[in-house]
């Protein structure tokens, strides 16, 4: 609800409740059915009213300022974070195939550009440089000798490093390998290296400290566990317990890049930092008015990959029966080291693409030697990018074999079989969506941004309203007819439910959709249900109290409407008793639901698919629980004030209302959950052919095959060039969903 004035935060939900009560009064007055049917209809309307309250008040999450974790809690959080990051990147390095037996030796050295701070601020004092002014800062290293590079990094005066390079030269790969080396062999006092994408950050809008804290909370939700205190992420940043590995300065707008460097220089919490950026963008950023170099930071660049290393790398990856087909390409690399093919394959990215598109698919690479077809290195790279997705899906069968009883999960194969062309079309849309929103991170709980807000509100309101109205109307009228049987009563009740239910449901659904649309100020985050009482009793008591404060007035309001309109009792005491029972049960249930709603925590990093499943379980579990509890409260309280005759009938009616209420809360309160909104967005995009029904399964399989990388609960394309190329490809797809005619289509790759 950020951005709404304080009075609106109260006026909007109160106005919504008043409108729905007015509608219920009008329906009751106009209806010709008996008092019992009116009572049932009003009870169902009251359920709808209560269903709107939790998602509204759920946006009013007040934070207590000034609370921090203790030093012991920060120490435990640091240890847990180290375990999480180590496990995360061990798996990622395997998936990215960065631990090959014969890795490509990319050499790095201090940049020759004027983009580095004074030598004595970068490196520790050396005898010749201190006394005679001779020599420069040295930072030579190779990616196949990472222990040496990690040792050299630790010897820097402030442990600040800028990794420059052109696209595809392995900047992120070096950062990941250095992060892994620092984790595997930590020294006393070493902070925990954490790789964070810089996409979407503006230090003028969010300080370095606040941004780091927020990203830690987003990527490592386990830090929000109660065992680590109220704000472990803030404690880790404030006490310099993390080493930020900031990837992709060049992905920020040009005007923002200098501000980031200035902010890092001024921030006291980023003494040690690793930064990656393209060479041209970094040179521009430090040269702009107000720009500056990273204070105390060594700046390194890759040397061109040697042609002999490229030939040796390709030859080592070939199977024996492939050697004959690759004779021509290897000869072209050797005989024309300055040609477009050799130029393209001088980058680690292009070599990885070559392996995916040609080596692993056993395709004939002879066409790559045609300089008329591929006159430039860029043309070669674009051809490989255009064919990457289809080639990867076509060459990698699912790991499940029903005929093999000993079949097991293979980490580099998909779980399902996907049509290669469909996979490329769907991933192209995902890339387009990410580029359109200006990010390199795919957060499944942000997918609704790809759908028109007006259409999503309208469709959601109509769908929810019709479903809720029919369910509540038919259930409530049927139970009344069954408890008061006479000729034609069941048929009349069903007709009344079919007629009145959708009307009230549509009004309530569209009203609720409008309210939730206006209150959509804060981003929903995935969560899970935590039922452990240890150390959480104080928070449970607080949430139960808050639930009573919020829902008791609503219960009293609903009881007053039933008393005045339906005439369930002539005694004022009965109306008060009814309101207290319903309000108390509703308040305690709301508090309990809020208490169990916990940011995802685990002993390992949270994968996107895991966060989706756990959030889905939470949303629908608490919604059904809420509905059943309130239904029983309505039934029993109604019995005690003569709404029904007999306790058994009250319980039966309560269960019936509870089932209807469970559906109501699932489709209203649950409809506002992160997973619910995601599924609505997927359904709408599926109808337009933009995504598959199992989008997360597709992304998980793409990750297993190395097309995507995982950073906590988000996915990223393996390389920014791949995302940009697929986003461009999406623009070329026709409205019918057919792939455009492309000179670099996979069909041109001839199988050997």
TrEMBL record:
Residue stretches spanning the membrane: 38-57, 455-474, 494-516, 540-563, 575-597, 618-641, 653-685
Keywords: Membrane, Transmembrane, Transmembrane helix
Gene3D superfamilies tied to this protein: P-loop containing nucleotide triphosphate hydrolases (3.40.50.300)
Classification via PROSITE patterns: NACHT
InterPro entries: NACHT_NTPase, P-loop_NTPase
Domain NACHT: 159-252
Signal peptide start-end: none
Protein name: NACHT domain-containing protein
Species per Swiss-Prot/TrEMBL record: Planotetraspora mira
